Each structure stands twice: as structure tokens, then as C-alpha cells.
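Reviewer 2 asked us to include a model.

Predict the structure of this chain.
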Amino acid sequence: MLIAPTSAYLGRDRAVTPTADFDAASPPTPAPSPTPSYRVSQNGDSRSSNTPGEGLRQLITTFDKVYSRLSHEHKQRFFDHILSKSHHQELSYLSEAVVPLLKRDPFRVLPYEISLRILSYVDDPKTLGKASQVSRLWHLILSDDQTWKTLCERHQYRRLSAAQRITYRQSSRLASIPNVPENMEVDSNVLESMYDPEPLRQVPLSYRSHFKHQYLVDAAWNKGGRLAAKHVTSDQAVVTSLEMNGRYIVVALDNSRIYVFAEDGRLIHTLFGHVMGVWAITVLGDTLVSGGCDRDVRVWNLKTGECLQILRGHSSTVRCLKMVDERTAISGSRDNTLRVWDIRSGVCLRELIGHDLSVRCIEVVGDICVSGSYDFKAKVWRISTGECLHTLEGHYSQIYSLAFDGKRIATGSLDTSVRIWDAATGNLIFVLQGHTSLVGQLQMKDNTLVTGGSDGAIRVWDLEQGACTQRLAAHDGSVTSLQFSDNRIVSGGSDGRVRVWDMASGQYIRDLSQAFDSVWRVAFKEEKVVILASQRRQIHMELISFSPKGEEKEVDPLEDGVVVEDIVMEEDEFK
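Predicted model (C-alpha cells):
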């Protein structure tokens, strides 16, 4: 920087002390007028010396004393003067030195709550991840659960229960960081790694770790996944039913067999007892109830594979089943009736009579059961009394599917329409038109209904407006299986494809697994999907996992045609 000593007044009542000639060996002497300028290197040396000169030290000392007494206005005038005397090299250096000084960490200045509010507007988790690496303070603030809870809500990830979360009280070492309240929720792993050299211990989930897990699961649904198990059987049969809960995967066939798999895909039981095809199953906890063409309803213990009860009373095929609670089940039959069973005692509590033709489908919420029939009608029943509350009439052909959420009833028919009914009054709310063939697949959640038809189309409906919001040309044949969550729709078709769609936009995401001859059933939970399909007259069961790596046994990436575990089951293995 160029320093130009001067005796000119910077104010009316104060002057700058005269400077020295840096090249002189003797101490500086006052001068009546400004002396020539001298260029000083960045390390403080003059042109004639490689070490700081005595004159420079005195000048700095004098400058410190004078500068501290100047007013703000005089300081500005002083800088104006210095800048006017500086060359480009000095100005460039000054710019590089000043810019970093003008930058301030906003999170060290702003109140903690405002910092969190600012971060709540950041939607991209990758941006938040990079921001957490800026400093220890940023890392700590971004570990606050509120930020990640907000992000979970925006991505429609499920909420954590109170038992899964943990609150840390601020330690003495955290107190040294400004603007951090005493009671703040942070990720336990962050605190451990930052301030505790001891090994990490198992702790309940925070929203940050929960979001990370869910984000990785979503990414795997879109592009990844691992084939966790694959079973192939030579059964030349039709898969009639698939049930999947947190413990078991249960598959029923029209050749009288029921296969029970563990959640990881291991075959644990083959249930024998029915003498004809099994067409309906329902699972609650460790209890399975099954029914079929032999007209029997059987109750099984899934832990042991033992048949606990055989319930007899129907005079034709049992076509549909639902568990009301751990003690009660309802069956619908081609004999036109429904029966309410005490599955522990094996007693039929009541028979529900009213349909004129086969009962094709039932749904249960609380004490209310809704049944759909080939007589074109649906009926609403009170389970505890057997009373028929409403008869829903309007369809022009058989009812094949229905959905019931406790308030509204949706019925799908061979007449290509879907009708929405008020469960409390039995009144018709909407008639949804759009499909051109049988509507055999329905699922309803909140104000959304998703339908699949034999025309290969999937439609998403807004139940408040009765309007179709998405139209998906899903399959080249019938939609044989359909399920949706907040984020995605998964469908299977008679064209042998299993496809994933974005729930919000209706955009196609990907095909899962290879192309089969036909897909019988598909069911999924948050991190797993089960596919039952037919290929070369064999039944294929595939379990695909989307869990992040390290959380379960590592297997090869899922690719078309890749079989990680191919267990070929011969006929005698099931006998």
C-alpha cells in the first residue's frame, strides 16, 4: 500500500502527526510540507530494507493513536485521501483484504429461532447437508430436529412417535456456542461425534436420521433396489390372494395350497388342509383365516403352521374374508350370504342375508361391514347386530371391487363406472366415468381414490370434486393389482409388467423386475415389494428390498434378469 505522510488538516481542530523518511538511518524529523510518497511492501518492509524499519513502527504507533480519536466522518475522508493516492496494485490488495472482513456469519448474529426459520425454507436436503459442513455452529443448528421434521412433512414422510425421539439438554461445552437454547432437539450422533470421544451408543431416532433413511429409500425406489429373495415353483396354478404384513407374506393358490414366508422371503410353512382352491385369505398378527371352493373357513397359527379351527356353514365357495378383530372374522360366499364368526370358539355368531347373488367383495371398518355382490348391489351392515343399514343400488352390472374408509364407499363394476356413496346415509355422491371396461381394482385414502381397470388404465380421482386428476395408460392388458402410498403407485398387469408411478404427477418412474408372462399380485410396504407372477407355467415370487445398504444382508444390485437367490422348488418339496 502507498502511504503518503501529510501535515494537512483532516479536521478543523486536529492534524495528523508528520511522518518519517523511511530511507533515513536517523529518526524522522518534522517537515513543513508533505514529503515524497514511499511504496511499502505487504510485509511492512521498505524498498531499502528487508526488515521493518523503526520509522514504520513509529508511524503505525502514531496512526493508531490518531485514528482512534477521529470521528466517523473524518475516518471516511482519511480513507478517501488514502485511496486517491493509491495505485492499482494497492487497491487490488485492499479489495482482497476488505471483502472477507465484510462477510459475517448470520447464524452468529441472528437469534436461534430466526436461524431455524430461515433454514425451514430450504427444500433441498443436499443443500442442507452441504451447509452443515460450513462450521461447527452450522452443523449444530442443522442438527435441530425441527428443520428435519419440517422437511419430512414436505416430503410426506411419516411422523416419528414420541418413543422414537430423544431430547438432549445443552452441555457446558455447548454453552460456549452463542445463540443455542438450553433445550434443543439435535441428532444424538452429532453431539456424540463432536464432543464425546467415546464410541457411539444406540439411541432413538431423530428426524434427521429418519429423513436420511426415508430419502435413501425413495432414491432406491426410483433407481435402485435389491432382489432379497426369489422363489420359483412348478405349480401350474393361479395365485388367488396375497397378504403382506410386518411379519409374514402369505400366498394362496387355486390348487388348495397356502405358502407362508417370513418378512425376509424365507419359506417357513406350507399349509395343507383345504381340499380345493383357496380364494380368500386375511391376516391379523399371527392369525390367518382362509376360505375356498371346499366351502370351509380355516383358522391358522402362522407361527406354528397349525390349523386351529375349521368353520363350516357356507354352502358354496368362500370368495372373500376380513378380520374384524383378533376374535372375529367375516366371510362372503357364492351362496349369497355373509357369516360372522368367533374364530376362537369356531361358532357362527350370525348370518347376514340379503344379497340375491354371489358376494364378491367385503370391507370392514369398526362395527360396519360393506359387501358388494353380483346382484349389482352393495349393502352396509352393522356387524354386532347383523342389521342391514343401507342397500346401495345404481350399478347396471356386477360389483367386483369396493373400498371403504368409514365415511365413504367406492364401488367398481363391470358396467365400467365407479360410484361413491355416503356410508352414513346410503346416498349416492358421485358417479365416476372414464374406464371402458371392468373396474376391478380400487384403493381409497383420505380424499384420493385410485382405480384400475381391465382396459389397462389407472385413474386418480379427487373425491371432494369427483374429478379425475390423473389418467395413466398403465398396461397393455388388464390391471391385475394396484396399490398406492403418499408418494407412489405400484401396479401389475396381465402384460407381465410391474410398474411404478409418481403419485403427485402421474409420471412413469420405472419397471420393477423382469417382464413376466403375467402378473398375478403385487403388494408393498415402505421398503419392500412382493411380486407374484407367472413365467413359462411356473409361479415366481420375488421380494425386492429398498432398504439402505448396511441395514440388512448385502445382495447384488437389482437389474433386469439378475437372480440373486434362485430357489427352485420341486413338486415334492411342498408335499
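The domain at 354-473 is CATH 2.130.10.10 (Methylamine Dehydrogenase; Chain H). The chain has five domains: 2-102, 107-218, 225-240+484-499+507-575, 247-341, 354-473. We have added this to the supplementary material.
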